[in-house]
Write a structure and sequence with these properties.
Its cofactor is pyridoxal 5'-phosphate. InterPro entries: Ser/Thr_deHydtase_PyrdxlP-BS, Thr_synth_N_sf, Thr_synthase-like, Threonine_Synthase, TrpB-like_PALP, TrpB-like_PALP_sf. It catalyses: O-phospho-L-homoserine + H2O = L-threonine + phosphate. The strands form 3 sheets. Strands 4-5-13-10-11-12 form a 6-stranded mixed beta sheet, with helices on both faces. Strands 9-6-7-8-14 form a 5-stranded parallel beta sheet, with helices on both faces. It has a 3-stranded antiparallel beta sheet with strand order 2-1-3. α5 packs parallel to α6 and α10 packs across α11. It has a domain of about 190 residues: Rossmann fold (3-Layer(aba) Sandwich). The protein has 18 helices and 14 strands. It is of the alpha/beta class and about 425 residues long. The structure holds pyridoxal-5'-phosphate (PLP). The site of pyridoxal-5'-phosphate has 15 residues, from α11.
Length: about 425
């Protein structure tokens, strides 16, 4: 597999380098020049999930992973299902929250962790990442107890919910968690400073588990096929998929699935009030605004970092932009959508509700709609309880970690202190 730097096409790397380095020169994203369709879709769709994922991923990755390594990675990644739940006659939710941290990010984080593990060659790797919530949990669980890899997660002290925090601070072993006295930006600045210290990067084998890593997208391509397969035959003709979007990795994966031949008719990109992309699709102008806090907070992104990949698929003629529309959903509409789902006897949370709104208002009677359920409702318990006037029970993984001890250490936002801490953690393991 050859990956080009979208900002500098003289930089071409293989899959391993793209996964190890994350970003290219000039902060450019790595991406293949062309995806070739998988010819026999009928046979592909008839395969059992892991077999199908292997065909899809080996088509994309090619010889960069041996057949047996890819098989091992797939076995270790797809240990939980993507379930299609019927909501109304022609509307379905693709539930992507049956993994260990109850969010779709488990798919990408697990696949990336297992790819990196297979590349480590017994050289220790240190993953350093900043989180404001969901990503930290998915990364921590994905890398927990993987040999030769240690993980350091920075989060803003006192700024995330206790339950969210406990999903990654209670694991221990190779997962080190640091509460930084500052906000999320201060955490990100420390990560950036660490990567600017090249001697340090080399010394500890520093790597970020950032969402722009190509490996995170590839695992996500597979579940679009999974969704399609779970539809009754007679509803597969005009399938519309609505994706609740923040950084636009998930939508990008869906569009890749279509370029590989999956017969999805069109996509809807649903955002909350952070609506840079819907405005761009309507006007052709890219004008990010100040980020606004919403109840679908995992999508509070005003300058989505995966958009250049989608733009490339459009510009290179691999995806027809007429098959993509945007929909910006405000807070009142999000709540109304949660109520509408509740009335259909389907319990949902704000992110999926944003997508349901986008789908429901544009779906034609002869189309079949799928919206993506990116998180378990209990993950956003306080909002869901309040909006729907209910008291959701915590599912087992959440209830379990709420009982455990928080192992994080507190630290001022000081690079030298962080560096000492990481070096010490490296000596231990
Ligand atoms: C990360 C996240 C999103 C946004 O996904 P992108 O791939 O960044 O567009 C949506 N919902 C939830 C619950 C998330 O955690």
């Amino acid at each position: 597999m050859e990956l080009y730097n979208l900002k500098d096409d003289s930089q071409i790397v293989n899959f391993e380098t793209a996964v190890r380095t994350g970003l290219g020169n000039k902060q450019g994203l790595f991406f293949p020049q062309k995806f070739s369709p998988i010819e026999d879709q009928a046979t592909l769709l008839n395969l059992e999930t892991k077999e199908r994922n292997k065909v899809i991923l080996s088509k994309i990755i090619g010889k960069d992973l041996s057949s047996s390594t890819l098989e091992k990675i797939i076995d270790a990644t797809f240990r939980f299902p993507a379930k299609l739940a019927q909501v109304t006659n022609n509307e379905y939710c693709l539930e992507l929250f049956h993994g260990p941290t109850l969010a779709f990010k488990d798919f990408g984080a697990n696949f990336m962790a297992n790819c990196l593990q297979s590349f480590s060659n017994d050289q220790p790797i240190t993953i350093l990442t900043a989180t404001s919530g969901d990503t930290g949990a998915a990364v921590a669980h994905a890398f927990h107890r993987l040999p030769n890899i240690r993980v350091v997660i920075l989060f803003p002290h006192g700024k995330i919910s206790e339950l969210q925090q406990k999903m990654f601070t209670t694991l221990g072993d190779n997962i080190h968690t640091v509460a930084i006295e500052g906000d999320f930006d201060a955490c990100q600045a420390l990560v950036k400073q660490s990567f600017d210290d090249l001697a340090f990067v080399k010394n500890v084998g520093l790597n970020s588990a950032n969402s722009i890593n190509i490996s995170r997208l590839l695992a996500q391509v597979c579940y679009y096929f999974d969704a399609f397969v779970q539809l009754p035959e007679e509803q597969r003709k005009k399938v519309v998929v609505c994706v609740p979007s923040g950084n636009f990795g998930n939508l990008c994966a869906g569009i890749i699935a279509k370029t590989l031949g999956l017969p999805i008719k069109r996509f809807i990109a649903a955002t909350n009030l952070n609506d840079t992309v819907p405005r761009f699709l309507a006007s052709g102008e890219w004008t990010p605004k100040q980020t606004i806090a919403t109840i679908s907070n995992a999508m509070d992104v005003s300058n989505p970092n995966n958009w250049p990949r989608i733009q490339y698929l459009i510009d290179s003629g691999q995806f027809d932009s007429r098959n993509l529309t945007g929909c910006a959903v405000d807070e009142r509409q999000t709540e109304k959508s949660m109520h509408l789902l509740q009335a259909a006897d389907y319990l949902s949370e704000p992110h999926a509700a944003v997508a349901y709104h986008g789908l429901h208002q544009s779906l034609k009677p002869d189309e079949t709609g799928i919206f993506l359920g990116t998180a378990h409702p209990a993950k956003f318990k306080s909002t869901v309880d309040q909006v729907l006037d209910i008291d959701i029970k915590l599912p087992e993984p959440l209830a379990k970690c709420a009982q455990l001890t928080d192992l994080s250490v507190k630290m001022p936002a000081d690079f030298e202190r962080l560096k000492d801490y990481i070096l010490e953690a490296c000596e231990e393991s």
